[in-house]
Amino acid sequence: MGQLEGRTAVVTGGSSGIGLATAVRLAADGAHVFITGRRKGELDEAVEIIGSATAVAGDISNPADLDRLYDAVRARGKGLDVLFANAASASFATLEETTEEHFDQTFGVNVRGTLFTVQKALPLLNEGASVILNSSVRADDGVEAFGAYSASKAALRSYARTWANELKGRGIRVNVVSPGTIDTPAIAGVVGAEKAEAIKAGFAARVPIGRMGTSAEVAAAVAFLASDQSSFIVGANLYLDGGEKQL
Ligand SMILES: NC(=O)c1ccc[n+]([C@@H]2O[C@H](COP(=O)([O-])OP(=O)(O)OC[C@H]3O[C@@H](n4cnc5c(N)ncnc54)[C@H](OP(=O)(O)O)[C@@H]3O)[C@@H](O)[C@H]2O)c1
Q1: Domains and their CATH numbers in the chain
Q2: Whose CA is closest to atom 42 on ligand 1?
Q3: Strand ranges in the chain using DSSP code E only, listed in sequence order
Q4: How far is 143 from 92, CA to CA, in rounded Å?
Q5: How far is 245 from 53, CA to CA, in rounded Å?
Q6: Which helix (H) or strand (E) segment is 171 a member of?
Q7: What is the pTM of this model?
Q8: What residue's CA is closest to ligand 1, atom 21?
Q9: Best residue for ligand 1 mutational test, from 62, 184, 217, 237 (most atoms within 8 Å of Cβ)
Q10: Which active-site residues does the annotation give?
């Protein structure tokens, strides 16, 4: 029997990269996984890959879309045991280049969207549930032109401490994962497909173990935090970075 047998999970951004790999892993461990993302075609393809999954198309920065997601979870009648708040927006702008639109887009998805992703799940979360927020090692450094993204990820690390404290009385644990550079479609999305391979080689060279991480490696850590194996881990930040911020 899998470590998440009979559990219900939500993965935002479950149609690509880290979210898709995590949804696959949670389903392999026995959970039924609800996934959300804006592109319906990608979601439908992901459901085929994941198996025990339900897709609800939506944008996490739109509260009405989150209501539809959780209406679908509620209709299943088993509450919610695992929430991986993973969807995010990433794009470059230096301090000088930053516009109100760029700031609002980044914080609207990553901070406001994640807050309401978790807040709207509260009535459904079962005793013993696990909430995992996807931050980033960028919360700990100052990569040029990544200020809004990095600050938004630092906000999630902070929120997790407060939310873990507020929810501990219900037996709900909140933790954070901070991936380093992980090989996903997002990299080409941020830097452009033509530059992606050179940029990835540069990333790999900066990781102490000499390579980028895989989505499956992040998924394994999220599955651990989602399971009862991590029952004494509360408000923590688990780095998944090949040593990038550790050595
Ligand atoms: N890759 C890395 O090196 C790395 C490192 C550290 C942290 N992270 C974090 O890991 C998470 C996943 O990144 P990834 O690399 O796996 O990216 P990805 O492959 O581009 O996947 C992003 C997923 O999020 C969905 N999404 C994006 N904006 C959304 C929105 N507003 N509402 C709902 N869904 C949305 C996308 O679907 P749609 O586009 O169809 O909406 C897609 O399913 C992000 O939080 C990212 O910051 C990544």
Answers
A1: 8-240 (3.40.50.720)
A2: 13
A3: 8-12, 32-37, 53-57, 80-85, 125-134, 173-179, 237-240
A4: 10
A5: 34
A6: none
A7: 0.98
A8: 16
A9: 184
A10: 149
